[in-house]
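Write out this protein's structure.
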Amino acid sequence: MDQTTPAGDRPDLQPVLQAAMRLVEANGLRGLSLRPLAEHLGLTVSALSHRFGLKDELVGALIEAAVAQDVAFLDRWLDHITAMQVRHGALMAEVADAILSDLAGPEGLRTRFYCELLQGAATRPELAPAVAAWSARRLAFWRAACAGLGPAAQHAPDLGQVLHAFSIGEAAYGLAIGDLAAYRWLRRLNLRRLCCGLIPADNTEDLRQYDVFRAALSEREPSGGWTPTAWQAKVAGHISALIIAEGADAVTHRAIAARAGLANSTLAYHFPRQEDLLRAGMADVSDRVRRVAAPGPGEASPEYQLTSIETARATFALALVVGRLPELKAATADLRRRRGENYVGYIARERGAAAIDVVSAQAVSVTGTGRLILEATLDPAGNQAAFQLTDHMVATALARG
């Protein structure tokens, strides 16, 4: 590969990037290999390698090219922000919502690539430096976007960092359910609280809107219509554990058979296709997260308790796989509407105050999830930065009253 020209400036790399992102969209990061990529481009593997290098070198160049596209997109938004003279939080919230809509819509293919890399880098450490560099560029953008507000107008500590984390927590949801008006309305409410203050002078109107659109997100049946047999239900826990640890694209018959101590043929009899494994695992993920967050009357919490980072990775993985299994869209919407509902009680217990309502709790919860996903890439051994960020947000809001 030509080492003198940055990957972002190589026109011949652009169709390769588009093809690679399509493969990742269809099959996750494991779908990004030389043979299918070469076939997609009408090349031989040797010709592809000769022009762009071996797999690791090519993937690095593709990420660099994707970052260059992303920076150009974000720079255009910085131009808009400068031209609009964004000086107050309410307008910043509207701008942030528009940016997230673009990232999930016209820029959705690249956003999915970014999300899959964020998820995959936790178990593929060779990807972590490039993903961290991409994330650093996005953080710099959000900080630059908020710079015109001035310290007094920034109701969150380091609002740029907060919006960056929130944008990660919302990225997969935007891809999965961004076409639902109820979801977009809840997102706007959350952004308004982040940019205008977690404790508004009067929250009556916000709570009324929240109740309406939260209910609208629950109109579909979250199960997706899949009912497991008793045998399938026993295996589903092994599938969901692998999804949480490594992502949906790690789910294969061989991997699940090894985890469950089963013969491949036995597993294939009960789950003929990979989609059947994914469907079972994702249904189990949804059930575990839902019951940990809010067990129903007489309903026990799941036997396997999820940690905070596991819950974050589980919800992120569930939203990302909706593109391949659309029937899981309702389950994803159900989990998004529940965000923050148990966190309200936690804040009241820990802080001895009920000033943070459910709308703000949602905003803080999604922000914490985004930071947890990022920490799994940057620091797999710990996740304290996420809790420090959300605790600081709440403490600052309570101090300001």
